[in-house]
């Protein structure tokens, strides 16, 4: 049964909190160990979050009868992840190196944009309803 967008948005928020905690936690740990390595820390954080997110989104957030196989969904999710990683790293680089923003503040701002775009892409492209 297909769920409405509001229902999924609530579930996305729950899973997103878990995913973001993994992402930001890995980022913060690496920044603590290597304070100037914000781009590698972002890559590790995003990768950690993506690993947690794929299954949780598939099984909980978008738990309807799905049109595509898990293999196709994984490929689409990886493509979306690569796009998100590139966009977030580019925006962080701009904000930290050129706008002289704090790396933690830049990450919070950038991730807000990426998370909103990801919800739409996941709903319409990765976990399509049957």
Q: What topology does this entry show?
A:
Elements: H1 5-33, H2 38-61, H3 70-98, H4 103-126
Helix pairs in contact: 1-2, 1-4, 2-3, 3-4
The helix-strand sequence is HHHH
> What does the overall shape look like?
elongated
- First and last CA, distance: 9 Å
User: How many helices does DSSP assign?
Assistant: 4
Count of DSSP E strands?
0
> Low-confidence spans: pLDDT under 50, at least 5 residues?
none
**Largest sheet descriptor:** none
Helix content: over 70%
Mean pLDDT score:
87
- Radius of gyration, CA atoms, in whole angstroms: 15 Å
Strand percentage lies at: under 5%
- What class, by secondary structure content? mainly alpha
Characteristic key phrases:
single chain; 130 residues; mainly alpha; 0% strand
Model description:
Helix content is 82%, strand content 0%. With 130 residues, it is mainly α. Helix 1 runs antiparallel to helix 2, helix 1 runs antiparallel to helix 4 and helix 2 runs antiparallel to helix 3. The longest helix has 29 residues. The N and C termini lie close together (9 Å). 25% of the residues are buried.
Outline:
The protein has 130 residues and is mainly alpha-helical.
């Amino acid at each position: 049964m297909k769920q409405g967008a509001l229902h999924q948005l609530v579930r996305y928020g729950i899973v997103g909190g878990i995913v973001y905690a993994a992402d930001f936690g890995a980022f913060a740990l690496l920044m603590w160990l290597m304070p100037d390595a914000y781009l590698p820390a972002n890559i590790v954080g995003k990768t950690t979050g993506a690993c947690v997110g794929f299954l949780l989104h598939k099984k909980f957030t978008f738990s309807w009868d799905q049109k595509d196989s898990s293999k196709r969904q994984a490929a689409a999710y990886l493509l979306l992840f690569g796009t998100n990683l590139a966009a977030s790293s580019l925006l962080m680089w701009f904000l930290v190196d050129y706008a002289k923003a704090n790396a933690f503040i830049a990450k919070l701002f950038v991730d807000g944009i990426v998370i909103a775009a990801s919800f739409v892409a996941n709903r319409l492209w990765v976990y399509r309803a049957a």
